[in-house]
Structure formats: C-alpha cells, structure tokens
Amino acid sequence: MPGRLEGKVAFITGAARGQGRSHAVRLAAEGADIIGVDICRDIESVPYALATPEDLEETRRLVEEHGRKIVVAHADVRERSQLREAIDTGLAALGRLDVVVANAGILPVHPGGRVAEDFVDAVDVDLLGVMNTVAVALPHLQEFASIVITGSTAAMMPATTSSSSMGPGGAGYGWAKRTLITYCEQMATHLAQRFIRVNTVHPTNCDTPLLHNKINYAAFRPDLENPTREDVLPAFTRFQAMPVPYVDPVDISNAVLFLASEEARYVTGQQLRVDAGCVLQIPGGSRG
C-alpha cells in the first residue's frame, strides 16, 4: 500500500539528530526521499554539544532502512549559499522538491546572562535560518507543496526563555520563535495562490539534547547545585497539563507528516501546538 508521501522529496534542516532525524525517518517511512542537512559542528554560544557528522550518517542509515533515497550535506542554515548548494545537489539526485521542514534550532542559554552575541546566534539560526531555508527552496516548489516550520510553545508563553535568568540567548530564542508565527502567516498568505501551504508546529519540551543538558536542568531546578535528569523530571512534568515530563520527537514528526500530506491540502497559516496542554495552563499564554 503506498505511503502518504509516496513519490515526494522532503528537504529537512537539523536532520542529524533529535526532531530533525525523527522527521526524516517518519517521512521516509511514508514514502518520501530526503535531502537532509545539518551543521555537524558546535557553535561557541551553545552550551551543549551539537550534532556530529556521525549523527548525520546515522540518519542516512535509518532512512535507507526504509528503502528510501537520501542526500545529506553539512550546511549552516545561517549561510544561504550553503543551503542552496545542498538543495541543488539533492535536486540533481532526486529530481524534485515537495516538502520543506525548516527545523534547525539552537538554545544558547547561559543563566545570569552572557553576551549580546548569544542573542544574535539564536536569532540567526532560529529565525533567519528558517527564512533562508524557505528562500532557497521556493524556486523549486510546485503547486500543493508544503512548508513546515518548527516553532516553540515558548513563543506563546510569557517569561519562559525571555526571563533575565536565561540571558540574551534565551531572549533571542523566544523572540525568534514569536516572530515565526507572523512570518508563517505572511508566507501562507502570499503563497496561497500557488497552492503552497505554510504551517508552524510548536512543540513543548521534547526529549532531545536541546532539553537534556545541564544548563536547562539548572534553569528548572535552581535550588540544586548540579541537578540530574531525575531531579528535573517533576519540574518538567508540572510544565504540561498532561502528567508527562516531555513529548517524544515522533509526536512532533506525526504532526509534520500530517501537514506535509494531502490530508492537509487546505490547511495553511496554522499554528499547531503539540504541547500536552502546556499553553492551556500558563497564565497569559497565547492560543496561537
């Protein structure tokens, strides 16, 4: 039985691990071939290790296990020329482009503040990286293509990453994710006549390295000197209305798959929360 994305090609940023890898594997399982990119090196302002070349090769292996083709490249979403080269290489091998998943993101949080460059890096990756991804993909998209952007529930809640304790990088992350809401709506409006859809998925805390690092643990448990994963689970759980500490990457991938598929052919300009009720219980939270 054909998959929901049979014959389609998806371009995914941040594909080496976490949500990006999950998206690549989930879409491949439904028939898509993949163009997957990742920076595959650390960024100085980010206080946790980013993906490695070996991580991207593991994504390749997992996609190929589903019998799909994949073209991978090391590319920094801050550099439009690198993204353009990756797409050109992918198109030469795979012949078309139907789905764009602008997923790459960082959270350069340093409690107590650090330097303004942390704000710049967060915005350059989390906002401009999305815009660069869409810009290089647009010339290759035909009618009924789908663009899916990774946002965050931090865009919909006051004083999460924007509190002074999270430093300039946290403020940049929150501002970038909030701006993506209106960016999505603008692009959806301007592409509607071409039947190209643009939607944003907003995860709550997700079980990836962006969540699981000592800086985030300290932010959730400031009462402890060196909190462990076990120490923060109760605090993580209180963050959601449903009694879970976080969602899994595949939960986000299932939403991405829906938005990429023909089942969502008239769904555009939407802000889809996958948040276990997180925003519902936060005073002042936006419904998006």
Automatic annotation (TrEMBL):
Source species, domain of life: Bacteria
Q: Which SUPFAM superfamilies does UniProt cross-reference here?
A: NAD(P)-binding Rossmann-fold domains
The record ties this protein, via Pfam families, to: adh_short_C2 (PF13561)
Q: Does the keyword Phosphoprotein apply?
A: no
Decide whether keyword Oxidoreductase is in the record.
Answer: yes
> What Gene3D superfamilies does the record point to?
NAD(P)-binding Rossmann-like Domain
InterPro entries registered for this protein in UniProt: NAD(P)-bd_dom_sf (IPR036291), SDR_fam (IPR002347), SDR_subfam_1 (IPR023985)
Q: Which UniProt keywords apply?
A: NAD, Oxidoreductase
Q: Which family does it belong to?
A: Belongs to the short-chain dehydrogenases/reductases (SDR) family.
List the NCBIfam families: PRK12826.1-3, SDR_subfam_1
Q: Which PANTHER family match?
A: 3-OXOACYL-(ACYL-CARRIER-PROTEIN) REDUCTASE (AFU_ORTHOLOGUE AFUA_6G11210), SHORT-CHAIN DEHYDROGENASE_REDUCTASE FAMILY PROTEIN
What is the protein name given in its UniProt record? SDR family mycofactocin-dependent oxidoreductase
Q: Which species does the entry assign this protein to?
A: Pseudonocardia parietis
Organism placement in taxonomy:
Bacteria, Bacillati, Actinomycetota, Actinomycetes, Pseudonocardiales
